[in-house]
Write a structure and sequence with these properties.
The chain has 17 helices and two strands. With about 300 residues, the protein is mostly helical. About 40% of the residues are buried.
Length: about 300
């Protein structure tokens, strides 16, 4: 019997990045006024770089139930549009005031604040248009409606936007660990949880049945992602992480290394990884192949950007 070779995780992620980038280019190519300042700013925010972890999570969860990429593309693209919009707005002078994103000038630096604000707005609208209209051959209409509601909740007041507001309120203040986790469970964690849920909802009742375990998994990796981001702000290389190293410290932001110290923050990330693996062990018992999700959890706390 020939020896089986496991595809390296980075190769799987690059494959997903290339797939999503190609699909985003297709979507933008179909839009009117593509060469306008707004169209160019939208593409700069959405297509330029990015790990595409949220789309990867949509596909990975959908594949647990045997769904094809074609049935999952709309959800993956919609999530990436929401994520891109959030980064454009997060980088604005009124928010985090960042001038570098993914190794390139941030949207407002390159195109001006007004175009950056509109680019974020337009990407948010595009996300819901895609989720409502794109072909999803194996997804029931009722499940599609559930997915639209999930994305709206995860990206709005009860999710990402609420977390961003809490983050801004906490700037320059000393807050505790519980308050910091509440910020990140909303600001970062809500869209990561939504990614897994959208993949699961695509499968109908089978997916609905495992939402509690997926929520445990995504709560752990979502928080681990932010803890590791905070660690990279301390020890990362600007050229590799693609944004200013030390920016959080300069802004006086509440971070895990600031609250816990660097070593304890690193231990926190490892503990969250173990929580994620424990949730997947319960899915394994239900005969789902969670290998890719386990590898994703490991990547989140080992990445250098």
């Amino acid at each position: 019997m020939p020896e089986q070779y496991e595809i390296p995780f980075e190769e799987m992620l690059i494959n997903c990045q290339q797939h999503i980038n190609g699909k985003l280019i297709e979507i933008f190519s179909s839009l009117p006024f593509l060469d306008s300042p707004l169209g160019i700013a939208m593409q700069h925010g959405a297509i330029l770089g990015g790990k595409r972890l949220r789309p990867f999570l949509v596909y990975s969860v959908g594949e647990l139930f045997g769904l094809s990429r074609k049935s999952l593309d709309a959800a993956a693209l919609a999530l990436e549009c929401i994520h891109a919009y959030s980064l454009i707005h997060d980088d604005l002078p009124a928010m985090d005031n960042d001038d570098l994103r993914r190794g390139q000038p941030t949207c407002h630096i390159k195109f001006g604040e007004s175009q950056a604000i509109l680019a974020g707005d337009a990407l948010q609208s595009l996300a819901f248009e895609l989720l409502a209209k794109q072909d999803m051959p194996d997804v029931a209409l009722l499940d599609r409606l559930t997915m639209i509601a999930e994305l709206a909740s995860a990206s709005g007041f009860a999710g990402m936007c609420g977390g961003q507001s809490l983050d801004l309120q906490a700037e320059g203040k000393q807050i505790g660990l519980d308050a910091l986790e509440q910020i990140h469970q909303h600001k970062t964690g809500a869209l990561i949880r939504a990614a897994a849920r959208l993949g699961a909802y695509s499968a109908g009742q089978r997916g609905h049945d495992v939402i509690p375990l997926l929520d445990q998994y995504t709560q752990a990796i979502g928080l681990a992602f932010q803890v590791h981001d905070d660690i990279l702000d301390v020890i990362g290389n600007t050229e590799i992480i693609g944004k200013r190293q030390g920016n959080d410290q300069q802004l006086g932001k509440n971070t895990y290394p600031a609250l816990l110290g660097l070593e304890q923050a690193q231990q926190k990330a490892r503990d969250l990884y173990e929580e994620a693996i424990a949730a997947l062990a319960e899915l394994d018992k239900k005969s789902y192949n969670t290998t890719t999700l386990k590898r994703l959890a490991g990547f989140i706390i080992e990445r250098n950007s």
